[in-house]
Each structure stands twice: as structure tokens, then as C-alpha cells.
Design brief:
Protein name: Tat pathway signal protein
InterPro entries: DUF1501 (IPR010869), TAT_signal (IPR006311)
Pfam families: DUF1501 (PF07394)
Number of helices: 14
CATH class: Alpha Beta
Distance between the termini: 35 Å
CATH topology: Alkaline Phosphatase, subunit A
Number of strands: 13
Structural class: alpha/beta
CATH architecture: 3-Layer(aba) Sandwich
Shape: globular
Length: 470
């Protein structure tokens, strides 16, 4: 079990912000402008609008075929461990156009040089421009761990995140700092602190994908959107069986509850959808965006297109701070890694680049930061034509405020026996998700005194700032 109150914001912050959404939950569109409640002592909204966009890659992204060792020594190790190009290693020649050249002053472990996956040329170009930064070997940690400490039976001094290598639990742990069953995520906890910065606080946390704990706060509730805009209930926009009474009855049933906590949550979400759907769609209708997000077959790009439109409508929506969630599934490559994995990464590459171009078009590239996350990394060793569940992995941060063109974190050895892995090349994270989230939170405007409400284990690590944000 995690040490500390990993699902709670600080008692002081919680008490100060209680009830922020009580107004929003029952407000009408007419009263939207009254939804904000002022309390900004622990959160700075200076500098105008800012947004964070989490791109979650469901299934556990294979880190070794996302950032691939390119120099001869480390490529040889990688290829041998992965069974060569007849196994799950990408050919060295296929990587020539996507080599990421770090500054000469930056020397990585074993002088490793990386290439990004060959289907990600757009993010390679953003790295070259200094707008994209890879974060190496990051994953959930409660305390810093060595391999000897990981293998120790002393779980008091050397606690490990519970239920490692489990999809559902590690998705939740990445998003919330606790396994499945957690009720708040660190995006939602940032939303709790940001509510008072927004005139219409119900649009602080925006979910453009399926249900996930990441955007749930103690007070902040995710507002669901779909690729066409707000989620609306078509039956409420017209008579049912030519009866206005039936229409009214349906509306009442959808909002009704008998006091059960799940019924209350459902009724609140439903009421928000009914009350605010038209308002959101009207706001989106006033936006103009010419960036091409490609075909609708790229599910991630279609999600990111509606996020871009929501950002374009930020003034009409009455927000200065927002947290978004988008996602793409299919990364659980126990088999068929070669080909299918590159195709998924190609979708990520196109979607993230299109979204960045949209922020440039909107004039907010320096105010919007996009970052990736996933259940876990995977094994460096092959199981035949795939890889198995791992722990640490590599991730990308993209935006105008990113200090890109260099690597952050510590590069792992290309090995299945080194002390920075726990077997079969499962990376033992050298950087914690708490440090990742705290660095993003500080840029977003969260005060240092409130970082522990976002990243509950941050006090156990050397620095809350990894340096990749300007």
C-alpha cells in the first residue's frame, strides 16, 4: 500500500475549495458567469491562459521500439536482445532519418544515441526545433529504489507501487498515484486548484476520451466531450412520440436520484450535459481553425481536434486554466509488435504534431503543453514476436514552453542484467511519475506549497523540477 494520503489533496486546500462545483452542478446556462468562486492563494493564474493535455497510450507502450539505440555499440546490444530483425528489432538503416541529436554537452549512459521510431518524423522535427523533449525511464515510484532495494523483503523501508505489471492497476497508478479504485487523479487534483481561476469552473477538466480517473478531483469533475463537440441527449431536443410531457418526464428521470452516491454522480454528470451542451456547442460554432487533423480513422487526431476547438473557444467558455485527456489504445503488444506498433506510433506522431500546429495557429503554442503517458513500459527481451509487461518507459513532452532538443532523466543501459532493470529488461524507473507531474504542475501555476497535493510522494525525491519546462 502507498505511504501517505495519495488520494487526497491537503486538508487545508480541500476545505478552502469545498463546494466549487456545487454551484456549477445546478447552474443554468444563464448563470454560467456566476460559477467561479474566488480563492487563489495556492494557485497562480498569472500569464494568461494555460492548458495541459495528457495523451494516454493504453496497453503499455513498448519503450525500446519508440526510442531506439542507434549508435553501433548500443544498437548491437538492442538487436541481439530483441532477436534481430527476424525478431522484434527495427533495422538500423530504417532509423537513419529519425536520429535525435542531443547537444554535445549532453552525454547519456554508455554514450548512447537514440533514434525515434521511423514513423514519428514529425516529432523528430519538433525535437530539432527545440519544442519536444523525451523523458527517459519514468514510471511510478513511492521512493527512489535501487535493484537491491527492489528485491528486498523490507517493504517498509523500500515500498514498491502495488500490483506492478497489471494493466488496470498501473493505468490508475500512473493517473492517480494509487491502484484501481482510486477516486482522484493528478489531473483532477490540478483542476481542484485551478477552479477558482475560471469563470465557468465546470470547463476546467475536459475528457475527450473514455472514463478515466486522471481528471477526477475532489471538486473538479471532468466535462465529457466527443469529437463533434458536447455530448448531448438527442431525445431532449424534441418531443418524444409527439409529446412534450414525455420529453419533460425523460429530463426528470435523467436528473433523478435517491441519495445513493453513484446515482448522485450520474445525475450530476447528466445534469451538466443537459444544461451546458448547447452552450458548449454554441461556443465551438464561433471558432475558426484551419489546421488539418487528417482522416477520422486516426482516433487520437479526432480527439485532439476537438480539444483544439475547445481551446479556441476558451474566452467564450470563460476559462484560463484547463486540463484535458485524450487517449489511444492497442499498445498491449504481446505479439505482432513489428508493423502494428509502428502504425500506432505514426498515429500519435501525426495527431500530436497536428495539435501543436493548431496551437500555433491559435497563438497559444507557448501556453499549451502536451505530454504522453502509458500503463507501463515493456520488456526489452522478446517473447517471440512481442514484448511483455514492464515498468519504466520513455515519454514525450511537446509545446512552445518545452525546453526541447535534449533528453531528460537518466538513459537506461541496453541490458537484461544491469541494475537499472528488474528482469528481462523491465526498466526500474530512475524518474518518478510524481516528478513528472510536479514539473508540469509548477508550469501550470501550482505553488510549491501545494505540489504534494498533486504528487503525494514528491517529498521523497531530490527535485520537484525536472527542468523540461521553461
Amino acid at each position: 500500500m502507498f505511504i501517505g494520503k495519495s488520494d487526497e489533496i491537503s486538508r487545508r486546500a480541500f476545505l478552502q475549495r469545498t463546494g466549487h462545483l456545487a454551484v456549477a452542478g445546478s447552474a443554468s446556462a444563464y448563470a454560467l458567469g456566476l460559477a467561479g468562486i474566488g480563492e487563489a492563494a495556492a494557485f497562480s493564474s498569472a500569464g494568461g491562459y494555460k492548458a495541459l493535455v495528457c495523451v494516454f497510450l493504453y496497453g503499455g507502450n513498448d519503450y525500446a521500439n519508440t526510442l531506439i539505440p542507434y549508435d553501433n555499440l548500443n544498437y548491437g546490444r538492442y538487436s541481439t536482445i530483441r532477436g534481430g530483425t527476424s525478431g522484434i528489432a527495427l533495422s538500423q538503416s530504417s532509423l537513419a532519418n529519425t536520429v535525435l541529436v542531443q547537444p554535445q554537452s549532453q552525454v547519456l549512459t554508455d554514450d548512447i544515441r537514440y533514434a525515434i521510431a521511423p514513423t514519428m518524423p514529425r516529432l523528430k522535427a519538433r525535437f530539432d526545433e527545440g519544442k519536444m523533449a523525451p523523458l527517459l525511464n519514468v514510471g511510478p515510484l513511492i521512493v527512489p529504489l535501487t535493484r537491491a532495494e527492489y528485491n528486498s523483503s523490507n517493504n517498509v523501508s523500500f515500498p514498491k507501487p502495488p500490483k506492478l505489471f497489471s494493466h488496470n492497476d498501473q493505468q490508475s497508478t500512473w493517473q492517480s498515484s494509487a491502484p484501481e479504485g482510486s477516486v482522484t487523479g493528478w489531473g483532477g487534483r490540478m483542476g481542484d486548484l485551478a477552479l477558482s481561476s475560471n469563470t465557468n469552473s465546470m470547463f476546467t477538466a475536459i475528457n475527450a476520451t473514455g472514463n478515466a480517473v486522471f481528471l477526477s478531483g475532489r471538486n473538479a469533475l471532468p466535462y465529457q466531450v466527443q469529437t463533434s463537440g458536447a455530448v448531448t441527449i438527442s431525445g431532449l431536443g424534441r418531443r418524444i412520440y409527439n409529446s412534450s410531457a414525455a420529453q419533460t418526464a425523460l429530463s426528470s428521470l435523467l436528473r433523478a436520484h435517491n441519495g445513493h452516491v453513484l446515482e448522485m454522480d450520474y445525475a450530476q454528470v447528466m445534469a451538466r450535459s443537459i444544461e451546458f451542451g448547447g452552450f458548449v456547442n454554441n461556443a465551438l460554432a464561433t471558432t475558426s481553425l484551419t489546421t488539418d487533423f487528417g482522416p477520422t480513422t486516426n482516433r487520437l487526431a479526432t480527439q485532439m481536434s476537438v480539444v483544439a476547438r475547445m481551446i479556441a473557444a476558451r474566452s467564450a467558455l470563460g476559462v484560463t486554466r484547463q486540463v484535458f485527456l485524450v487517449s489511444l489504445g492497442g499498445f498491449d503488444h504481446h505479439d505482432d509488435l513489428i508493423g502494428s506498433h509502428e502504425a500506432l506510433l505514426g498515429q500519435v506522431d501525426f495527431a500530436m504534431d497536428a495539435f501543436y500546429r493548431a496551437t500555433v495557429e491559435l497563438g497559444v503554442a507557448n501556453q499549451v503543453t502536451t505530454f504522453t503517458a502509458s500503463d507501463f513500459g515493456r520488456t526489452l527481451s522478446s517473447n517471440g514476436d512481442g514484448s511483455d509487461h514492464g515498468w519504466g518507459g520513455h515519454h514525450f513532452i511537446l509545446g512552445g514552453a518545452v525546453q526541447g532538443g535534449r533528453f531528460y532523466g537518466r538513459a537506461p543501459s541496453v541490458s537484461v542484467t544491469s541494475d537499472d532493470q528488474v528482469g528481462q529488461g523491465r526498466l526500474l524507473p530512475s524518474t518518478s511519475v510524481d516528478q513528472y507531474s510536479a514539473t508540469l504542475a509548477r508550469w501550470f501555476g501550482v505553488a510549491d506549497s501545494e505540489l504534494s497535493s498533486i504528487a503525494p510522494n514528491i517529498g521523497r525525491f531530490a527535485s520537484p523540477n525536472l527542468g523540461f519546462m521553461g
